[in-house]
Design goal:
Blueprint: H1 7-20, E1 25-29, H2 35-41, E2 47-51, H3 55-64, E3 73-76, E4 90-95, H4 99-112, E5 119-123, H5 128-137, E6 141-150, E7 153-161, H6 181-200, H7 205-216
Parallel strand pairs: 1-2, 1-4, 2-3, 4-5
Antiparallel strand pairs: 5-7, 6-7
Helix pairs in contact: 1-2, 4-5, 6-7
The chain binds S-adenosylmethionine.
S-adenosylmethionine binds near residues 30, 52, 54, 96 and 101.
């Protein structure tokens, strides 16, 4: 049976598809049910990894993979911070966990696999601005970005890599459609959040100014 995805993971799969022709592997990091990787594996026939530290999750996934696919598809019950691989160009999707954990995993992967230039497709559950700040400081650039509403919640999705030349803006301007009222109300809420945060952490004042500049164009 074909794997079905909700709007958030469908957007992640859609963004990932741009890189899969050249990629040598796809990684469903923090995979849980593995829906994303299973969906991608229907059209991607190169190497795949499912990574999650919970043993029972990985055992269930292994049962879903046919014997003939087991040499191509590897399921690992490890933390993402310990993930190593041999390919030069993997696409690594990290979704459904917080921005701080995503940053930890991205950093570990880049340090532990210096032979490779991974493309990361990231959909943090929270702290997208703080995540972009860390990525920026480490020299990551951005390609595609988007905002998706799924089950009443908004998700910022970003495709980043050290090889991308376009600089990452802290607020992810290119993710937003200023003609879409739902995007405008999301941006206003984010502005309020960072305005509140900047009272304790003045370094976030620049983020508020960026939201003001973007909202001023609407
Ligand atoms: C909410 S699920 C996300 C599932 C799927 N990626 C999605 O977006 O729908 C979060 C998963 O992250 C896994 N996880 C937690 N810490 C992790 C880590 N350090 N490395 C890899 N996976 C981790 C959890 O075990 C859990 O299965």
């Amino acid at each position: 049976m074909k794997q079905r995805l909700g709007k958030r993971l469908l957007k992640v799969a859609d963004f990932s598809s741009k890189y899969l022709a050249d990629a040598e592997s796809f990684v469903d990091m923090c995979c849980d049910h593995g829906h994303l990787g299973l969906f991608i594996s229907e059209s991607f026939s190169k190497r795949m990894y499912f990574v999650d530290p919970v043993k029972t999750i990985i055992e269930k996934l292994q049962d879903k993979i046919s014997e003939s696919e087991k040499s191509r598809i590897t399921c690992l019950d490890i933390k993402g911070q310990n993930f190593t691989y041999t390919e030069n160009l993997p696409v690594v999707a990290i979704c459904g966990v917080g921005g701080d954990l995503i940053w930890e995993i991205v950093q570990s992967i880049t340090h532990k696999n210096p032979h490779s230039s991974p493309i990361f497709v990231l959909a943090p559950q929270n702290r997208p601005v703080e995540l972009r700040e860390e990525l920026n400081g480490q020299g990551f650039g951005v390609d595609q970005e988007g905002l998706v509403k799924d089950n009443g919640k908004y998700y910022e999705i970003m495709c980043v890599a050290e090889v991308f030349e376009k600089p990452l803006s802290l607020i992810g301007e290119s993710a937003f459609d200023l003609n879409d009222n739902s995007h405008l109300s999301y941006l206003k809420k984010k502005r309020e959040h960072y305005d509140f945060k900047s009272r304790k952490f003045p370094e976030f004042k620049k983020v508020v100014q960026m939201y003001d500049a973007l909202l001023g164009k609407s």
